Amino acid sequence: MTRAMMWLGSHKAVTLFLGLIYYILTVVLHDQVQGIFLAAKDQFGLKAYTIGLIAITLGGLLLVTLLILKKSSPGRRLGLVYWFVSMVLIAVAYIVILVLPSEYIHIAQYAVLALFVYPLCRRFTDTVVWVTILGALDEWYQYAILHADWGIYFDFNDVVLNLLGGGMGAAVI
After folding, report:
1. Cβ(93)–Cβ(164) below 8 Å
2. CB-based burial of residue 163 (10 Å sphere; 0-12 exposed, 13-18 middle, 19+ buried)?
3. Which UniProt keywords apply (predicted)?
4. Alpha helices in 45-155 (DSSP H)
5. Which residues, including other chains, have CB under 8 Å from residue 27's CB and lie 6 or more apart?
6. Going residue by residue through the chain (173 aa), what tens digit of pLDDT does each one get?
């Protein structure tokens, strides 16, 4: 991961381009990704679907945690603190704001986006702020343009999940 981040940091134009492409695809393909999750829920039933998504999420978090611990050094301790705080906040979000388990996709999507943003600004806080702003723009796009005729509310909960994803992605670095 370190080599990749160093390469992305030394090739900022490429990083910006790749990050923008990733972000645009995330925003534009929202309905297609949502359709995949809804089809899986219909095929497996809500209970099996929920258990499967939780298992995949927890498995992924455990794998990344083990990778971070394996590469742990004195300089990475702050990253570990951020990682564990993010995991606690995700658990709280599950209890407090999550409507469907498929909304966890926001965390994964915006954790990946953080991998493109961090090399551009080189600071944890700036990365999380920029990823959250981009996540809020994504939610605004869904609210005002993509689903303007649906009469849905602006989904602030998704912005919070995007923020948590940004934090998770930045903590991995």
Report:
1. yes
2. buried
3. Membrane, Transmembrane, Transmembrane helix
4. 46-70, 77-96, 105-121, 124-141
5. 137, 138, 141
6. 678 888 888 999 999 999 999 999 999 988 888 888 889 889 998 888 888 887 887 788 778 777 767 766 666 677 777 778 888 888 888 888 887 777 888 888 999 999 999 999 988 899 999 999 999 999 999 888 887 787 777 888 889 999 999 988 888 87
Structure tokens at 149: 């005729």
Residues 101/36/84/111 CA torsion (nearest 10 deg): -140
Instruction: Give me the DSSP letters along 49-65.
Output: HHHHHHHHHHHHHHHHH
Name the token pair of 96: 């407090």
Q: Distance between CA atoms of 21 and 29, rounded to whole angstroms? A: 12
Domain boundaries, the chain: 3-172
Among residues 94, 109, 96, 103, the alpha carbon closest in space to that of 23 is found at 109
DSSP state of 147: T
CA distance 97 to 163: 13
